[in-house]
């Protein structure tokens, strides 16, 4: 069984500072992928960044980067230079490995609510 | 614009009254899926479809039906809604290979009284 753990129910950060949102996962698969999504108060789910288990470098997308530590089974999201618009719920998700069949279902963590203070 | 469109955005209904939430995507994605989001439980998969006429159960399929007669559409049907199906529902789609991200619709907030 797969499991995604986000241990921070809520985080606060000052505008323009960097923040790290934690995500640990548990899987016995060798091939897997990790995703981060943002859910603002308006409710939509926005894809931010992806890291594959075989990717040698940490993924980056603009102000978002993923601190991937495979041995520790962690995939923390780093947001640099926080903006007020970054205030939202953030979800870490993992997809099934090859052993999971073609569903490649995403299993989501319970989320971290980030508040950016001016 | 590439998008997943769900309708309606908000729906209030009564127990037992059949309803359908529509979902359509214009990205020619093979894979489509329905999730429900509940406080403290995160997002859980209800049903998914790998392609036309191919559907299968997710983690919480009880009380729901789906169909995939066309590639772009994947409606969610509640034959006899109950209050425990009050939730925020998301339709999502992606390309067929595993590392492509899910693209979500804007969600449907359903209340069953």
Explain what the structure shows.
The complex is a heterodimer of chains A (118) and B (113). By secondary structure, chain A is mainly beta. Helix content of chain A is 0%, strand content 50%. Chain A contains no helices and 12 strands. In chain A, the strands form 3 sheets. In chain A, strands 2, 5, 6, 10, 11 and 12 form a 6-stranded mixed sheet that branches. In chain B, strands 2, 4, 5, 6, 9, 10 and 11 form a 7-stranded mixed sheet that branches. By secondary structure, chain B is an all-beta fold. Chain B has strands at residues 4-7, 10-13, 19-25, 31-38, 42-51, 54-57, 65-66, 76-78, 87-94, 103-104, 108-112. Chain B is built from no helices and 11 strands. Helix content of chain B is 0%, strand content 50%. The model of chain B has no long low-confidence stretch (mean pLDDT 94). In chain B, a hairpin with a 2-residue loop joins strand 5 (42-51) and strand 6 (54-57). Classes of the chains: A mainly beta (118), B mainly beta (113). At the A-B interface, strand 5, strand 6 and strand 10 of A face strand 5, strand 9 and strand 10 of B.
Quick recap of the structure?
Chain A is mostly beta strands. Helices cover 0% and strands 50% of the residues of chain A.
Structural class of chain B: mainly beta
Strand content of chain A: over 45%
Query: What is the helix content of chain A?
Result: under 10%
Summarize model confidence as the mean pLDDT of chain A. Answer: 91
Q: Which outline of chain B best applies? A: globular
Structural class of chain A: mainly beta
Low-confidence parts of chain B? none
Number of helices of chain B: 0
Sketch the topology of chain B as an H/E string, one letter per element: EEEEEEEEEEE
Characterize the biggest β-sheet of chain A. 6 strands, mixed
Count all strands of chain B and give the number: 11
Intertermini distance of chain A: 41 Å
Rounded to an integer in angstroms, the radius of gyration calculated over CA atoms of chain A is: 14 Å
The biggest beta sheet of chain B is recorded as: 7 strands, mixed
Poorly predicted spans of chain A: none
Overall pLDDT score of chain B: 94
Q: From the structure provided, what is the oligomeric state, counting identical versus distinct chains?
A: heterodimer
> What gross morphology of chain A would you assign?
globular
The percentage of residues in β strands of chain B lies in over 45%
Most residues in contact, chain pair and counts: A-B, 24 and 26 residues
